[in-house]
Amino acid sequence: MRLSIGKLLGLLKRSVAFSKPHHVQWMVTRRCNYRCRSCDVWRSPSLLRELSTDEVKRGLDVLRRLGVLEIVLSGGNPLLRNDIGEIIDYASRSFITTVYDNGSQAVKKMDALRRADFVAISLDTLDENKYDYLKGVHGAWKNAMNAVQTLKREGIPVGVSPTISQLNMYEILDFSQYFTERGVPVLYCLYQHDSVKQPLFHIGEVEKDLEIVDTEALARICKELAKKKRRHGRILITKKMLNTLADLYLERRRNWECKALQSFFMIDPHGRVAGCHLQEPAAEIFELADLWRSREFEKLRMTYEKCTKCSYMCYMFYSLHANIAGNFEIVMDQWRNAKVVLHPGRS
User: H-type helices in the chain, by residue range?
Assistant: First the structure.
């Protein structure tokens, strides 16, 4: 992550403000060129118009004034937008900006990605056949590996983002070791599915070969990852998050309240804002400043805090760190990670 001193100071100033959101995931498109088994976005293209470049920029201005620290540009595949370079450039002036890619577009869009703070390449396994099966596209693994190697060689901050599932769980420690030894950070996701169609987007039906059934093994993996994180900074997950996952899967204990529409929220390609993809849109992006402190939003937050529908890692993470100390901890952790990325020989 390429954080300048000026940008870091601006982020730290926003991180100590009260009642400010930390994280926004913006699905800038639903378009996708892969057919992942764990995702339904590609199965249900929207007929609604995507926001234009200027509209996205106006939306980013709203988020900056609101106090947002971190933007994740996702989809679909955000790199399929022709204007993605302009969007990344504008976002990276004010936010920690992460861009996701399935590995198919990053090399083609390297110039656009040079302004991003971090590029996360979806890669779940070192097994080529297994990965192509998961992505539903022949050659997906080669594309992803080539993207990681090429971006790293070009000096673009890049990491791999595996989705931990029953299918790859037992190799995740070796997978992490392989990439961290080569100076490539690892940012983790966890396989989940939606039981019903959701209003913002649908992640997918249950896949029996992906559904995690060996919960004791997952808890052990979390503990081992915590040990690895103590040794170096390329494990991009906090100790608090790893302990929470272990408690959830080993003891079925939820020790967090959801902070949707407080610490985090989502925006779809049409500019609709929702606490998460499980909830109905609550506003349009251009209405957000007026509604953020409204009674309507306060009622929604109270409802979301009681929600126990999911255990998606991103929602858990920003709920666990949903206070000033948590914001500060995240920004400083990302600053330490930035130094690791920029100086791969140091750990």
Answer: 5-15, 53-66, 84-92, 110-113, 128-135, 140-153, 172-181, 215-231, 239-251, 288-291, 295-305, 313-320, 324-342
pLDDT of residue 343: 37
For residue 3, what pLDDT is reported?
A: 58
Identity of residue 226 = A
pLDDT the model gives residue 344: 37
Q: What is the pLDDT of residue 340?
A: 42
User: Residue 311's pLDDT is what?
Assistant: 85
Q: Contact 15/331 with Cβ under 8 angstroms?
A: yes
Cβ partners under 8 Å of residue 5, min gap 6: none
Residue of 346, 347, 345, 340 lying closest to 157 (CA atoms): 340
Residues linked to residue 266 through DSSP beta bridges, in sequence order: 25, 274
> From CA 96, how far away is CA 236, in angstroms rounded?
14
The tokens for 16 are 């100590």
Q: What is the pLDDT of residues 172-199, one digit of tens each?
A: 999 999 999 999 999 999 988 776 666 6
Q: Report strand pairing: 118-122 vs 158-161.
A: parallel
Positions of the chain with pLDDT under 50: 1, 338-347
- Measured between alpha carbons, how far is residue 151 from residues 90, 103, 146, 154, 309 in Å? 21, 11, 8, 5, 37
Entry field: residues in the chain: 347
For position 325, what pLDDT does the model report?
Answer: 60
Instruction: Please state the separation of Cα 100 from the chain's center in Å.
Output: 8
Rounded Cα–Cα distance for residues 88 and 116 (Å): 6
Given this model, what pLDDT does residue 259 score?
94
**Closest C-alpha among 190, 189, 169, 207 to residue 40:** 207
Rounded Cα gap, residues 83 and 225, in angstroms: 37
What torsion do the CA atoms of 90, 291, 321, 72 make, to the nearest 10 degrees?
-30
Cα distances from 134 to residues 102, 138, 160, 193, 205, in angstroms, run 12, 10, 16, 15, 14
Q: Are 144 and 123 in contact (CB under 8 A)?
A: yes
Question: Angle 41-60-290 (CA atoms, 0-180°, nearest 5)?
Answer: 100
Q: Side chain identity at 104, as an amino acid letter? A: S
pLDDT value of residue 339: 43
